[in-house]
Amino acid sequence: MAHSPITLPAFDAQAITVSSSQEVRALSYARTLHQLMSDIQQGKLPADKMLANYFREHKKHGSKDRRLLRETLFALFRWWGWLNKLATTDTQQPWLAMLATAAMLENHKWQDIAMAWAHLAGVNINAEDSATPLTRIQTCFPTLSFDSKALLPDWFWQFADSSQAQQLADSLSQRPPIWARVQGICRDKLVTELQAEGIPAVASKVFDDALTLGHKSINLNDLAAYRNGKLEIQDLASQVIGQVCAPKPGEKWWDTCAGAGGKSLQLSALSQAKGKAVTLTASDIRPQALEELQKRARRAGLRNIQVAPWRSDALPVATAEFDGVLVDAPCSCTGTWRRNPDMRWLDNASAITDKPQLQLDILTRSSQAVKVGGVLVYATCSLAQAENGDVVDAFLAANPEFKAIDSVHPFTGETQSQITVWPYEADSDGMFVARMTRKA
Question: Is the pTM above the cut of 0.70?
Answer without folding.
Answer: yes
